[in-house]
Amino acid sequence: MANKKTQENTSKYWWLKHLVLALIAALATVLILFWMLKGITRHGKTLEVPDLTNMTLSEARKVAKKNHIRIKITDSVYIPQLHAGQVLKQTPGAGSRVKKNRNILITINSLAPMMVKAPDVVGYSLRQAESNLHAANLQVGRLNYVPDIATNSVMGQSYKGRALTPGTEIPAQSEVDLTLGLSASDCWTKVPNLLTLPYHRVKGELTYNSLNLDKIMFDATVKTYADTLNSIVYKQEPGPTIGNSVRMGTGVVIFLTLNKDLAELNKQNTKAKDLVRDTSSLNLPKDTQLEEAQPEENTEEAQPVETNNDEPEL
Q1: Is residue 40, in this structure, part of any structural domain at all?
Q2: Does 136 lie in the same domain as 101?
Q3: Domain that holds residue 90
Q4: What CA–CA distance (Å, rounded) separates 250 from 124?
């Protein structure tokens, strides 16, 4: 009787035992899968992306390997002022968190410069020569004036100090220097107001007014080539003139910053000075003339730093 009763109790709870075993097996399976998934995806384990910009391609590869990430070149551009293979941009950016062996997409400066043929601009006006050079993917360099009856007529073209024969292949975006005529009766121009003007527009504005860009200075806010492209003029020498009072070919020095407030303040002060000069010439009563605005002292302005290559060292 006892054995029969024991068998009945055992058969009565067999399903409960199997249910418990099934639950244990399911829980163990979930834990094993979770552990495997965590190992595969490295859940919670990320690496900080280093700053690869301004490095050469070989340097970037070494840094990427050291930091357990990979780099992939997705685009290249040609900028003559930069070193071949220099990293210009990266995605994700420096400081981002990524998983091990993540691909970092980079844009580099072309390893080989694109070559273009120099056009013949001799005999053209400065405006037409500039247009033809731009069409050939080249830039106007220095304007060298010599006495002639036709002002701003191109008399010669050169590249790196040597005469440039039409059809000669030179790197794209190179600057071609022009020798121009200058008549004694038409040799004066004005200095434009460059304040707050973006860096990439300065050269064109000066060329339009038959002036040269002599030197570029940077304050402490401009550190990289990308900063240079985004910078604006906050100071210029000589300052803007109201009429034609400087000789064509005069050199202008510009000072660049990323501080828009500083540039705008200097521009407003310059406008106020121009108003004073204008009203003074009208011989108005003293009490009706405008007072010259005094520029506010800017304690945050950094000392400009001259560079040898007209751009921040990269």
Answers
A1: no
A2: no
A3: 47-109
A4: 21
pTM for the full predicted model: 0.65
- Per-residue confidence in pLDDT tens, the chain, 314 aa: 555 555 555 565 666 777 777 888 888 888 887 777 665 555 557 889 999 988 999 999 999 999 999 999 999 888 877 788 899 889 999 999 998 899 999 999 888 888 999 999 999 999 999 999 999 999 999 999 999 999 999 999 999 999 999 999 999 989 999 999 999 999 999 999 999 999 999 999 999 999 999 999 999 999 877 788 899 999 999 999 988 889 999 999 999 999 999 999 988 887 766 654 544 443 434 443 334 334 444 444 444 444 444 455 44
CA separation (Å) from 271 to 19, 162, 212, 292?
88, 42, 23, 10
How many residues are listed for the chain in this entry? 314
The answer on 193 and 314 residing in a single domain is yes
Question: Tokens in use for 46?
Answer: 């990320």
Q: Are residues 147 and 238 in the same domain?
A: no
Structural domain count of the chain: 3
Residue 121 inside a domain? The answer is yes
